[in-house]
From TrEMBL:
Residues 23-263 form the PBP domain. It comes from Propionigenium maris DSM 9537. This is Phosphate-binding protein. Residues 1-16 form the signal peptide. GO terms for biological process: phosphate ion transport. Belongs to the PstS family. InterPro entries: PBP_domain, Phos-bd, Phosphate_ABC_transporter. Involved in the system for phosphate transport across the cytoplasmic membrane. Pfam families: PBP_like_2. GO terms for molecular function: phosphate ion binding. Keywords: Phosphate transport, Signal, Transport. PROSITE patterns: PROKAR_LIPOPROTEIN.
Amino acid sequence: MMLKKMLLGVSLLLLAACGSNKEKSQVVQITGSDTCLNVTQQLSEAYMGSNRDARIAVTGGGSGVGIAAAINGTTDIAMASRDAKESELKSAADAGNPLEEIVFGWDGLSVIVHPNNPVNALSKEVIGRIFSGEITNWREVGGADAPIILLSRDSSSGTHVYFKEAVVRGGVKKSAKEYADATLFLPSNSAIVQEAASNENAIGYVGMAYMDETVKALEVDGSAPTVENVSSKKYPIARELFWYAPAERSQVISNIIEFALSPEGQAIVAEEGFVPAK
């Protein structure tokens, strides 16, 4: 009897240890927005640096890809540069994967042109008319007599969706305006920067953390896309950055989220060129 009790005790200890090791060895998958990709990678690396047992894999693909993966349970955290639609949240709940929305930062979208472009500022309303194809020549807005080349993120991007709703449609929910047929849809912020840097007639938009000296950011409604102006809500094209995680999740996933919202995590968000949520 004593031997049986001892064996039972050892078995329970082994089961507990196996459960603990499984929790520690869990590879947390984070998928989605390319805008959120770099900052999420930095957050993940910092977290793993302080937690040697942690394993995190971060991949892009766009906000829509990330949210779809969260709905079907193939990712642990979805990165998104737009808020999830009611239909997406319902689909997740119906699939048994109800999602919690976590805002970890803010981003201002920089509207960019070639440095040689004489246009330095436009209104949000005019930018919307340019991207819808109503304005097609730079001379109509004070620039050279040249056709405007439109650069946009592709449709899987949350940035694409946000810009269409907030700028092309002017925030009017019933509007059916779309990007102009001639728009070039590109797969990443970096691709838009590269194209704008090489084409004097191009105009595009990118997350402000992806700006560099090869392109020029326009003032919008008299405000530049800076951390200060996004923080004060002065800059008119700004949006929240999201993580979507299972409402019922492992402690490992909860710990990663808590780190992202901690002072150390929020400092990383700021270092990457975004505005901290806290």
